[in-house]
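Team,

Forwarding the record for the chain on the shared tracking sheet. I've put the sequence and predicted structure together so nobody has to dig through attachments.
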Amino acid sequence: MATVAIKTNPVTWFEIPVKNIERARKFYEKVFDLKLTPDEMGPYKMTFFPWTENAPGAAGALIKGETYEPSHAGTVVYFSVDDIEETLLKVKTNGGKMLLPKKSIGEYGFIAHFEDTEGNRLALHSMKE
């Protein structure tokens, strides 16, 4: 019997480095209106984003550990949101900063970049004008 390969998106997991896991947890919960779940894995403190099996998108966590350093350099994680302007207001209200205001990327919608409370550069994506 032949094995059928299931096609998936290549990214399945992300980790966002933090210095203060509790401050970062509160920031992400307030900005994105969701509940994160704290846990520890060996020497690492983690707080997991909600995940739904068989739903689109990657799972991930905030992570604090010896080899994790918040940064503007490197990979940028994009969060899907309904309203970029509303989310940027929440970012500012909760201690983050806007780095790149909302801009069009043509038929692919709109993006914006922000800095979280830990100094990471992250981004927002929406199809809503």
